[in-house]
Amino acid sequence: MDPTPHSNRTDLFLMWAVQIGTLRASSVHHPVYATNVRRGVDRATPCTQRTYAGEWTLLLSQLTLGKGFLLIIVLTLLGGCFGRSLYPLPSKRIEKNRKPLQTFRPYNIAHRGSNGEFPEETSAAYTRAIEEGADFIEADVLATKDGALICFHDVTLDDITDVATHKEFADRKRTYELQGYNTTGFFTVDFTLKEIQTLRVKQRFSFRDQTYNGMYPIITFDEYISIALDATRVVGIYPEIKNPVFINQHVKWADGKRFEDKVIETLLKYGYKGSYMSKDWLQQPMFIQSFAPSSLVYISNLTDSPKVLLIDDVTIPTQDTNQSYWEITSDSYFGFIKDFVVGIGPWKDTIVATKGNHLATATDLVAKAHAHSLQVHPYTYRNEHEYLHVDFHQDPYAEYDYWVNKIGIDGLFTDFTGSLHKFQEWTSPSNKDEKSASELLSKIEALISSSHH
Questions:
Q1: Does the pTM exceed 0.90?
Q2: Beta-carbon contacts of residue 160 (< 8 Å; ≥ 6 apart)
């Protein structure tokens, strides 16, 4: 083959750069990953070098450039993927090569899935959350009359299902005492799993998209877990043991076990185990959460998986121990509960109080929790103006910036996983190596162009 004329080298290089760009763009959907170590924890960063070494050799052989410039190109390649193994295309990778959970920035927790777009806690909401970059998908776990575990937030079915349109269930309405108040409705504990699965879910908020109302059923706890395990990267789960006092009062299992036992049995069945940041935990990350402190203490004898104590409004006592907000956020209580949990999940307005929809002075709750080595994962972050405080000028990114960089939280429960993920990628990107390689390629291109002027 004849040597490449000097006048065509720039065009060839740019063609080669375009090929790299195409590979990089396609890696968004089909990434190849290699291990990088940050903060003592293995994590993965995308590697744009998706072809085999022989293909790089072919590309380089087409560039019969001077030795010096060829060295720059080689260094560029090494800079982008130094020390990284070449793997087959994603469809041929085995599960152990899934991209690990990121652990270098606050966790993006999909609150009931991406429920800003789809009806909450449906397969569609969870799948979309994973597509949008969630680190964890969160679920509320309840039980049916026959003891099946389902993912649903309310103990009543009235607000977000079509139960009222099912004439066959018209006689199921009941009144029960729930956390000190009489509540009337169609309760999950009065329906079998088979009956529950005939219902369809709708969007909770009228100002959100209603397109998907009536399309999706309530899913089981097993189905929720499977969605996370089937993801092409490592995605954590964040189940809540929901209203355990109420469930244990109304649902009885044949083996005499408690609701909490059944939840942990299911998690162990699927391999969820290990203390926070252990090898087992990193392979299948999970936090178990509850508003009931006694449940968290109880399951500490069943699993060493990390647990999070949820904290309600300042006016609402704990549902099982009847302790006030002020009791469970005191230094003495944090000193006690830290032996059983790794963090707290408070309502965000208890961290920074509001006055007339304006932010007031921040409390010391985050600093106090951190002093006891407890993480803080507040809830819930929503994009709509109905929930954004005036201080953020209708900008959810301004809200994320405030909470992450000023308040210093460790995770965020959000209805809009995609928004949080984009904010984090812009402010603390996970693909710093790739961006550096892109910048170097741009500089090389500029140098080539300038050499002809």
A1: no
A2: 119, 120, 153, 154, 201, 202, 203, 204
